Amino acid sequence: MERRLDLLVKLATPIGVIIMLALQSQFVTRAEFLRTTENTDTRLAKIEAVLIRMEANAETDKRHDSLLSDHEARIRAIEHKPL
User: Over the Cα atoms of the chain, what is R_g?
Assistant: First the structure.
């Protein structure tokens, strides 16, 4: 029993070192993090530009809808006017 415990204690350190090395290899490097952050920032900037254009288009569409409604109301008024 004592030999098993002694063997376990002797193997614990190398196994612990191997586990620590495996865990450290799972983290991203600074260069990978910066590259990913840069790519994300670029994508976010593109998305923001698209959203700005969409908002401007929505305002234009709203004005056009208002004008169409006005024209439609005028046409209906002319149609219902007695001759």
Answer: 35
| Alpha helices, H only, 1-83 | 2-24, 30-80
At 43-66, the pLDDT tens digits run 999 999 999 999 999 999 999 999
Structure tokens at 76: 């209906």
Q: How many domains does the chain have?
A: 1
How many residues would you count in the chain?
Answer: 83
Residues 36, 28: contact at Cβ < 8 Å? yes
The structure tokens listed for 33 are: 């993090």
Cα–Cα distance measured from residue 20 to residue 11, given in angstroms and rounded to the nearest whole number: 14
Give the span between the Cα atoms of 83 and 81, in whole angstroms. 6
What is the dihedral sign for C-alpha 70, 75, 78, 80? negative
pTM above 0.70, yes or no: no
